[in-house]
Here is the input.
Amino acid sequence: MGKNTASQSDERRDLVRIDDKLLLEYNLVGEVPQAPRCETEQQMDEAIAAFIARPTMELFAGAPTNETETVLRPWLTKLDWVMALVLKTLAKISPQALAMPRLTDVNVSGGGLSFATERLLKKHDQLEIRLILPPFVPIL
Here is the structure.
């Protein structure tokens, strides 16, 4: 192993890697964006639940337990339930009108983003990627 290769290897070990499930959409650069569609009602329900409930769960996971949190938890949980119910109802009425980003297993590191795709990509294809990261702000 040459000195340059050893240096690159040491540098690569210093990178932080994060494995997580994130809401993700992608398309080829220049392609008309098409939001992913869930094929089954169960997939749609799971996507809606992830989109609605995850921010609240993460908020409370990092918050200290106190009186305010005890009062807010039932209200936020109720709001999540109502929002999910409305979205699920819209999805049942008109499935083609409601596209949700898919909860996708991703690996994020200093070297890039890794995720499994549903379509075949070529070596030099360029992608436009939209991620929704906690606290659920879209990243384009």
